[in-house]
Amino acid sequence: MMRAGKLAIRAMATVGLLGLAACSSSPPEPKVVEPYQPIHIPEYAQAEANGSIFQAQQGYVPLFEDQRPRRVGDVITIVLEEQVSATKNSSSQTSRSSNMGLDLEGLPEALEQLAEYGFTVGSANDFAGSGGSSASNQFSGIITVQVTQVLTNGNLRVRGEKQLAINQGTEYIRFSGIVNPRSISGQNSVTSTAVAEARLEYLGDGYITEAQQMGWLQRFFNYIAPF
């Protein structure tokens, strides 16, 4: 009796530890884009005065030169216009049938009594199956990012993050990718569909996000359920 009580206590302690482990959840970590980190912008050394009217120095941008982003630290507005849809349908059908009969009338006289027991065998097998799936996603918005690296071919690697605090929850929008400077419009913006290796992440934490998650006990039973 005492042994059964000890086993019951151990089982309850194990379940309690599993529950505590499941409850100790932290805000969701980014899976697509790394968390934002400050960008180091190199400071150009102050050049000595080399002229009374015009002084050539690093960081100089001519008056009539295109003002599009081209250096680390420059900002670009990304217009998020993501829309993806996919549909898949499949079907299959098979059929098979066979018949076989045996007539015993032509056997010797000793087996004439078996003639009346002639038999016929038949079989049929049919199968039909079909399946389909569909998915669609749509995301729209605006986010401003910074140039983190200028590649050797002139393309710009960008990354940015936007945080929205709504009541007792926080929403995070993170974006990164590679932008061709020729794709940047005169309003210093580019659509997300023109960004290579685009990575977009939208997540949040707070009571609203927690309400959308399954409870720890239900997750435990789903994990150990055999079917």
Automatic annotation (TrEMBL):
It is found in: Cell outer membrane; Bacterial flagellum basal body; Membrane. PROSITE patterns: PROKAR_LIPOPROTEIN. The basal body constitutes a major portion of the flagellar organelle and consists of four rings (L,P,S, and M) mounted on a central rod. One of its GO terms (cellular component) is cell outer membrane. The keyword Ribonucleoprotein does not apply. GO terms for biological process: bacterial-type flagellum-dependent cell motility. Keywords: Bacterial flagellum, Cell outer membrane, Cell projection, Cilium, Flagellum, Lipoprotein, Membrane, Palmitate, Signal. Transmembrane segments: none annotated. Pfam families: FlgH. One of its GO terms (molecular function) is cytoskeletal motor activity. Belongs to the FlgH family. It is a lipid-anchor. This is Flagellar L-ring protein. The lineage of its organism: Bacteria, Pseudomonadati, Pseudomonadota, Gammaproteobacteria, Alteromonadales. Residues 1-21 form the signal peptide. The keyword Ligase does not apply. Assembles around the rod to form the L-ring and probably protects the motor/basal body from shearing forces during rotation.
